[in-house]
Amino acid sequence: MAEEPVHYEVFIRRTVTSGWTLELATEARLQALHTAEDALKEQRAVGVKVSKESRQASGRYSSLVILSRGELEPPRRKGRAEAETAVPLCVSPSDLYSVHARERIARLLEGWLVRQNATAFELLHRPDLVERLDAAGLELQHAIQKVAIPEAQATGVSIHEIIRRYQKLTEAAVARLLADRRKGLFPDVSHDGLAACLRRAQEAAEPTYVLGAAVAGALASETGWAAKISRLLDIADSMGEAPGLSLLLQVIEQPLAEILGGRAALGELLGGAADLGRTLALMVRLVAPDAVDILARNDPGLAGAIPPVTPEAARLACWLEGTTFEAVRAALVRRVLGELHGPRRLHPGDPAAELQTLRALARLLILSPGAASPEDVQSAFVDRSRRLVGADFVQSYVDQWGGGVLGEAQALVRLAENVVGAANKRAAGAWLKAAVGSLRFERELRTGADSPAVKLAQLVELRNALARTGLEPEERSEITAKLGEVADLVEAKAHLIASIVRAPSGAAHRLLLLLHLANGDSAPLGPVSTRARTEVLKLVRDAGVRAELAASQPGEMERVRQMLQTAGLAA
């Protein structure tokens, strides 16, 4: 009786509020289970399930869930009464000045702020910017709508109610800022001097608000991002160790973190970095200068992927070395990890440079443990690795590497060595197995122009490199076995072992050549090494060969004895 057709479907929930989506359909049970477990482990999903689908005689499928992990049900929606009593995140103008509020304002008004060359910090402290935003028409209204819709879905409160609430809040914040300007509450750094500004701020009810307005006013005349950063650092440098320095640095840190957390400013500060890879490398250099020095000493080649910084960036790096601007460092690291999660290529058109830069970034972040949590770093590089094993990247990478089929295999070994994540390792291993197991690989190795000894040595080099890839032992064994089969074809066509046995050279020399093959030094372990061992046993049992070995040089005889022991052939 014929077996019923069976396949397995992997479903994942990417967030706690999203529904189930089909990730994979396959006839391989283990592949389905591995895919589901990897999605959870690599934090690509909050819940997974695997179902076994069996086709019945009627043509319908019966489904059986064989694995379920994580968050399987969406969170319970709040009831109407509970939603109506939920406390909004922002209820007064002062709430808009918190870190999370400023981050949200920066996202909602990103386009407008970039056009104004300003940050959310400046918008909240500069009356002229507020008036300009109010005159812009629908910009503010659209921002309120963008935040109101998801909040209404999460809380159950009507969209119109939330919009009215945020309109009242923004009107109150604008009125407060304009009224404080009319009262002369905000000091002027260029007119009053920094020390006087600090004294007035410390005497005010909200020191950070008043001092923030003074700092924002000092930035108003600067039109470029690099100029704004330079102005902020000038203000910080001018204080020395004067009283109130901690308050000043606390205020300066806010616009500095916002500037460096956005995309627009970094190109200016870092000297117009040509591509994303160069930008990220320079950003990591800012937050981990000590790690760059360690990398330069231990791996100069890899350190070459980290370009030097501009004088202005070096000045900022000096401030970031201590514990002063922790929020700025955090903003830079978030930007680096966010870009690694994103789809943009680090070095478009240069896959080899992309791998080199990624390897350098990983080393630097590991050498600087305070820069980011290991979990966040792991997640970012797993996500980036997923793109490295995609067909488009792999094809461009092996084409760039060159060198025929051996060059392709070497490139894929290098790729497998650099990707992280169990699923990505398996994908890289699949590419490598496909390359090594192809008829083209066999044909070019058998008919290539290189000598048989060179071809076998190249296969050994490829086998040795497999140990650095981190592939599963089963995958490495499968690839190694295939390399051994190809080596067998190369040796059989050239009759290399027979030529060594019949060579007119001394017995010790012939034995050493055969033992190198038998031990896997000159050819991959497999049929070639087995035949070489057989010929070694024949030679060492021959009385004439034994007599010749006894009469040979002591050093030569010792080398033969050591290699026989390594091969397990010594008596």
Based on secondary structure, the structural category is mainly alpha
Tell me the fraction of residues in β-strands, as a range: 5-15%
> Which overall shape is indicated by the principal axes computed on the Cα atoms?
elongated
Radius of gyration: 33 Å
Largest sheet: 4 strands, antiparallel
Gap between N and C termini: 57 Å
Give a count of the beta strands, DSSP E runs of length 2 or more: 4
In which range does the helix fraction lie?
A: 55-70%
Strand order of the largest sheet: 2-1-3-4
Given as residue ranges, the uncertain stretches (5+ residues, pLDDT < 50) are 80-86
Report the total helices: 32
Average the pLDDT over all residues and give the rounded result. Answer: 84
Description:
With 571 residues, the chain is mainly α. Among the domains are: 6-70; 90-261, no CATH class; 490-566, no CATH class. It has 32 helices and four strands. It has a four-stranded antiparallel beta sheet with strand order 2-1-3-4, covered by helices on one side. Helix 11 crosses helix 13 and helix 23 (404-418) packs parallel to helix 26. It is elongated and about 110 Å long.
Task: Tell me the layout of helices and strands.
Layout: E1 6-13, E2 21-26, H1 29-41, E3 47-55, E4 61-70, H2 80-84, H3 99-108, H4 110-115, H5 120-125, H6 127-135, H7 139-155, H8 159-182, H9 189-192, H10 194-203, H11 207-219, H12 225-239, H13 245-261, H14 263-269, H15 276-287, H16 289-298, H17 300-303, H18 311-320, H19 326-341, H20 351-367, H21 374-388, H22 391-401, H23 404-418, H24 422-436, H25 439-447, H26 452-466, H27 473-494, H28 496-502, H29 507-518, H30 527-541, H31 543-550, H32 554-566
Antiparallel strand pairs: 1-2, 1-3, 3-4
Helix pairs in contact: 7-8, 10-11, 11-13, 12-13, 13-19, 15-19, 15-20, 16-20, 19-21, 22-23, 23-24, 23-26, 24-27, 25-27, 26-27, 29-30, 29-32
